């Protein structure tokens, strides 16, 4: 089945530093990737939609200058949390839509394992 | 706000019993997917049901979709302690996928 790899799985950083999280589709091309944030014991909140070769579309209330998204290729999207602060600590999950029809043409979403960010 | 709402928020049952979780959504969809998440882990895809399908089975899972009521249900039969997890529905439409609030299922051995 299709695999989405997210890296790193865990990261701890100091307040004020920037952290980059990568999301890769390993065996399919993904024109669209999504980034979600999940607080403890809550659901996933869609942050932004990342389209290959164009600017990301951010959901209302998500700071685009804080959460920089780049989708430079059909298999890679990155989320950079800039000048991270403790309130940015969270579980970040990406998903990728299968363009090639690996999942029978349904455009099924495949999810990464998530990245847990802790800002000290 | 989240597209989907799920109920119950929490469900506790004995091993061997069936568990039913419901999901309601607001806008038109292309498909609806159910996911499972163990504590602190990523999402595991369980089943996808398209908007033109009404019921789908996969092993001990049974999913129904009623587009007229904008609702879906996930039934887990003969539950096991290993089924303990959070379950989310995700609706896929208008180019993006949004999640319900989730149901936390606890299966007691």
Features:
heterodimer; A: 120 residues; mainly beta; seven-stranded mixed β-sheet; four-stranded antiparallel β-sheet; B: 109 residues; six-stranded mixed β-sheet; five-stranded antiparallel β-sheet
Molecular structure report:
The complex is a heterodimer of chains A (120) and B (109). With 120 residues, chain A is mostly beta strands. In chain A, 0% of the residues lie in helices and 51% in strands. Chain A contains no helices and eleven strands. In chain A, the strands form two sheets. In chain A, strands 2, 4, 5, 6, 9, 10 and 11 form a seven-stranded mixed sheet that branches. Chain A has a four-stranded antiparallel sheet with strand order 1-3-8-7, with no helix packed on it. In chain A, a hairpin with a 5-residue loop joins strand 5 and strand 6 (57-58). Chain A is globular, with a radius of gyration of 14 Å. Chain A starts with a strand and ends with a strand. The relative contact order of chain A is 0.33. Chain B has strands at 5-7, 10-14, 19-24, 31-37, 43-50, 55-58, 61-66, 71-76, 85-93, 96-99, 103-108. Chain B is globular, with a radius of gyration of 13 Å. Chain B is mostly beta strands. The relative contact order of chain B is 0.36. The interface between A and B is medium-sized, with 25 and 24 residues.
């Amino acid at each position: 089945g299709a695999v989405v790899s997210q890296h790193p799985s865990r990261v701890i950083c100091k307040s004020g530093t920037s952290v980059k999280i990568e999301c890769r589709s390993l065996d399919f091309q993904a024109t669209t990737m999504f980034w979600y944030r999940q607080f403890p014991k809550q659901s996933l909140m869609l942050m932004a939609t990342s389209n290959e070769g164009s600017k990301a579309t951010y959901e209302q209330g998500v700071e685009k200058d804080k959460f920089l998204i780049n989708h430079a290729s059909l298999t890679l999207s990155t989320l950079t949390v800039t000048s991270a602060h403790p309130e940015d600590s969270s579980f970040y999950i990406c998903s990728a839509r299968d363009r090639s029809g690996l999942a029978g043409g349904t455009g099924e979403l495949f999810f990464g394992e998530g990245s847990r960010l802790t800002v000290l | 706000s989240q597209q989907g709402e799920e109920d119950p928020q929490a469900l506790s049952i004995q091993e061997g019993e069936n568990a039913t979780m419901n999901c309601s959504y607001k806008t038109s969809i292309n498909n609806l997917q159910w996911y499972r998440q163990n504590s602190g882990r990523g999402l595991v895809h369980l089943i996808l049901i398209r908007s033109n399908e009404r019921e789908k089975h996969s092993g001990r899972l049974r999913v129904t979709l009623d587009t007229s009521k904008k609702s879906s249900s996930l039934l887990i039969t003969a539950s096991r302690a290993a089924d303990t997890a959070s379950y989310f529905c995700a609706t896929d439409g208008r180019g993006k996928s949004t999640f319900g609030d989730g149901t936390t299922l606890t299966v007691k051995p």
